Each structure stands twice: as structure tokens, then as C-alpha cells.
Amino acid sequence: MSDRFEYRSANENREKQNSGFEVRTQTPFRFDIVGSFLRPQELKQARQQFEEGKITAEALRKVEDESIRSLVEKQKAAGLPVITDGEFRRATWHLDFMWGFNGVGHSPTKHGLPFHGEDAMIDDTYLTGKVSVDSHPFVDHFRFLKELEDEHTVAKQTIPAPAQFLEQMIMPGLIENTKKYYTDTEELIHDIAAGYRKVIRDLYDAGCRNLQLDDCSWGMCVDPRACQIFDTDEKGLHQVMEQLLEVNNLAIQEKPADMVINTHVCRGNFHSTWASSGAYDRVAEYLFARENVNAYYLEYDDERSGGFEPLKSVSDGKMVVLGLITTKSPVLEDRENVIRRIHEAAQYISLDRLCLSPQCGFASCEIGNKLTEEEQWQKIRLVGEIAKEVWG
After folding, report:
1. Domain 41-391: assigned CATH number
2. CA neighbor of 279 nearest in space, from 235, 352, 222, 351
3. Which residues sit opposite 193 in a β-bridge?
4. HEC states along 159-213?
């Protein structure tokens, strides 16, 4: 798209748009993204060479740096008011973050995680001791991104939600190992939350004012097979949801007043496949009503996500970003149909509390989804064009 939205940095006060809606100076934006982007071939090649011992960590970082600079320029050219590093320094959207904590180990998987039609061959990740954190590498990653902000853009850091970290360690198949170090789940919850509070403080000191918690745990809870997945009954599942809510709220309870923390909810996104299905009804009174975040980025790209009715539970003052554009397919959505769905959602939460984005990132893992970079940017441009038409 040729013209840019008139968004500015978080430090500036702005007039209202002609539409009557306030211009947002922090996430979420009317025109937004979840965070990850397809890795360029030169980055994939460099990472492979590093893993094979053919190049140094410094050489890999140089390729990462240049790839991120190029990505940020493309985000700016698309008119996005928010920039991310595309998660270019990670193998996966969530596990790399966990590996930055003390007490967490990982090794190549033997079986993979079951997705619809394909297994995700990502490292097994498990506890090796008590959970704590010293200097997390993601803080330096953010410092690099922060330097690429300009007067039109703000930088957003994405990390897996505390609930995702907890879920990783209490799932069947891992919980017996976890019990070697934590016989009491509450102790684990408090250690995870304490670690996150430190990382959040460090990110804030590095200049981060926009943080996104990516969270598939709620997507697992809405699945019809949720009790089987967590090896419990319905009562036990509600106890799990209380724990997921508790760890998220404990982790963010000390956030600075001028820092925005949002949640992105997903049902799995690996190589254009998915892991779970189900409407938000089961989790609405936990997630939407009681989680103390500023906004929710919600997957709504197909029938697996159910209807908009649960949005009635979103507590006052919170925003919702509708993920109506899929990242799993190169096929462009029909503009009028997306606009119609935005107005359907506005029957349950007012239009001025809604925004638009793709339903997820384009590359939750290095392998990426099944579309080209140009098709990726066509999706981004479509989000921007629709957002401009709906909100001005």
C-alpha cells in the first residue's frame, strides 16, 4: 500500500482521527501483526551452517542482524505502526525463551508433537532443576530491535506466556520429571512467575513498552479432547485453567504503569498445520474476564475458533485484535467478508475496542508456513487496507 497510517511513537500525544477513534500510541493498533515472519533463505542457511559447526556464533549473529534490519524496513514500507524482529533469532516461538532460564534443559525429539497431519519435530524441553533466570538473552535481542524504531513505529517484544511455560512442564509425559524438582505445582507457579517478573523488568529497563505473551495453553483447554490432553476430568481441567490464570497474573502483577502487556491466543501453528480446535466459551470467564492484560490477539480465521459471542466476557477497558486473516494459506481473504465479520464481532464488543491482524505469525518455527514471502506481504497489506477502510 502506498500511503502510511499516521501513527507515532509512544511518547507523543496525537489528535483524534477523522473517524473519531483515538490514535493508538501503544499496542494494539487497528492495523497489527502477531509477530513472526518467514525466515529468508540466507538466514536459514546460516543457522544450518552454525549447527554444523561451519560458522561461528558471531557470524550467525551478523546474518541475523542484517536479516532483521531488512525485515523492519519491509514492515515500515507496509505502513505497520509496530515492528518486531520476526523471531529471527529463534528456532521456535516458545522453547528458545524457556531455554534462557536456569533449570530448563532440552534435547532433540524422538517423536515430535502431534499436529493435524504432521508432527512438529522440535526439541523436547524439560526441567533439570529449580526455575530461575539471570540475564535473559531476549533482553539483548530487544535492545537491537529498539534501535530500529522511528517516529512512525514502536517495537514489540513477543515471548511465550507464563501459562505456556507451566503447561510445558505439567503435561502428561513430562510431569513425572517435573515432580523430581517440584512436588507442589504452586511452588513451580511462583518460581516461573518470579522469573518472568525479572525478565519483564529487564525488558522495561531496555526500553520495552509493548510486550506480547503468546499462549497456546488456552487453545488446548478449549479443545473437545482437553481432558484427555491434560489427563484429567472436567473438574481437574478447571483447576488447570485456574493455574494458568494464576501464573499469568502473578507474572505481570508488578508491570510498570506505562508498559502494555497483551495476550495472543493460538491453537497451534506449525508448517500451516494446527494442533487443537474449539470455541472460546470454555475459557472466556477465566481468560477474557480475569486475566489482567490490556488486549487479546485472537485466532478467528476459520470455524475451529467458533463464534464471537464469548467476546461479551472481555472485561471493560480491554481491546480485542481479531485474527481474521489466516497465515496458514496463501489464498487472500475476501475483503468484504472480513469487513462483515468485523461488524459481526462488534455486536458483542464495541467497534472502537476492536483491531485487525493475521490470526498468528507466519513462522512459529524456522520451517515457516506454506506460502511465499510475497504472499506473506500481500496478507499484511490486506490487513492494512481493511483496517484503514473500517477505522479511517
Report:
1. 3.20.20.210
2. 222
3. none
4. EECHHHHHHHHHCCCCHHHHCCCCCCHHHHHHHHHHHHHHHHHHHHHCCCCEEEE
For the chain, the structural domain boundaries read 41-391
Find out whether 169 and 178 touch, Cβ atoms under 8 Å.
yes
359 φ/ψ angles, rounded to the nearest 5 degrees: -70, -25
Backbone dihedral angles phi then psi of residue 38, each to the nearest 5 degrees:
-60, 135
3-state DSSP call for residue 29? coil
Rounded CA Rg of the chain: 20
Alpha-carbon distance of 196 to 178, in angstroms, equals 19
DSSP state of 31: B
Q: What angle do CA 342, 343, 346 make, to 5 degrees?
A: 95
Model pLDDT, residue 22: 46
* Helix H or strand E segment including 241: helix 234-252
The pLDDT of residue 270: 52
From 259, 135, 267, select the one nearest 208 (Cα to Cα): 259
Asked if residue 154 lies in contact with residue 9, where contact means CB atoms within 8 angstroms, the answer is yes
Q: Which of 93, 219, 232, 71 is nearest to 153 (CA)?
A: 71
What pLDDT is stored for residue 11 in this prediction? 33
Which pLDDT belongs to residue 170? Answer: 94
CA 106 to chain centre: 22
Residues 6+ apart with CB under 8 A from 152: 4, 7, 8, 9, 76, 81
CA distances 300 to 33, 241, 270, 277, 282, Å, are 14, 21, 17, 11, 16
What is the reported pLDDT for 14? 31
Give the containing element (helix H, strand E) for 285.
helix 284-290
Cα gap 314→218, rounded to integer Å: 15
pTM of the model: 0.90
- Residues of the chain where predicted confidence (pLDDT) is lower than 70: 1-24, 110-122, 268-277, 304, 368-369
pLDDT of residue 364: 81
Q: Are 350 and 391 in contact (CB under 8 A)?
A: no
Q: What does the block give as the cell for 317?
A: 477497558
> String of b and e for 201-228 (b: at least 16 CB within 10 Å)?
ebbbebebbbbbbbbbbbbbbbbeebbe
